[in-house]
Amino acid sequence: MKILAISDVHGEDNENLYKYLNNNDIDIVIITGDITNFGPLEFVDEFISKILDCDCEVMAVPGNCDPAGICKAIRESDAICLHNNILSFDNVVLFGYGGSNPTPFDTPGEIQDNKIYGDVYELLANYDFVANDEVPKVKILVTHAPPYNTGADLTESGDHVGSQGILKSIHEFQPQINICGHIHEAKSISKIGTTTDVANPGMLKDNGAVLIDIGEGSDYTINMISLDG
Ligand SMILES: [Zn+2]
User: Fold this and answer.
1) Pick from 44, 73, 17: which is nearest to 204 by CA?
2) Tens digits of per-residue pLDDT, 34-79?
3) Has this prediction a pTM greater than 0.90?
4) Ligand 1 centre from 203 Cα, in Å?
5) Where are the domains of the chain?
6) Given CB 3.0 to 4.6 Å as the disulfide criterion, which of 98, 118, 207, 210 pairs with 83?
7) Residues bordering ligand 1, an ion, CB closer than 5 Å
8) CATH of region 2-226
9) Cα dist from 116 to 43, 77, 105, 148, whole Å
10) What's the 118 CA to ligand 1 centre distance in angstroms?
11) Which H or E element spans position 59?
């Protein structure tokens, strides 16, 4: 099964995405937030419909630059809203959490970092509590905000601005993958400890995307690709 992650659309379409999806066998497209640039919500359905037309499933979390009503708009476009949600299929488990820790820009989807920590902890803990560890799975945490102090949260000025709450939850539950976005210039795949690959595809208009190829059990590969490549 192949998953393509994209992020930070900010209302700007990219024809290379549809070309890529029509030429490659992708099962699921995951959008890690900031689909719009503070609205309009009508863009959500226009954009997601075009991806669905490429014969892929679509899942998304909201970003801090998406307005109120974004989760409803995602669901009404026939995509799955992963915000504060767990979804399991085949050998993959997805945990989703949108928004971001506070920014200097006072954007609509900001959440206090201790609340992010509590909510993400609960998502991961709930699964940990009920799941059978004997069954190998690829656990993927889908967030808009990147975890603090990684390749994914480094700004142009050299500051790490990611979420300490997400970092702490990753330390505690060690999902195999965290796909995120939010910091446009921090397009990267890096690692937390030895357990977790952290991938930020960057802005869609810059042609960044992360390809996750799920194998048997808990096997997978993860790679940064260029949609114009
Ligand atoms: Zn953002």
Assistant:
1) 17
2) 999 999 999 999 999 999 999 999 999 999 999 999 999 999 999 9
3) yes
4) 10
5) 2-226
6) 98
7) 34, 63-64, 182
8) 3.60.21.10
9) 27, 26, 18, 13
10) 20
11) strand 57-60
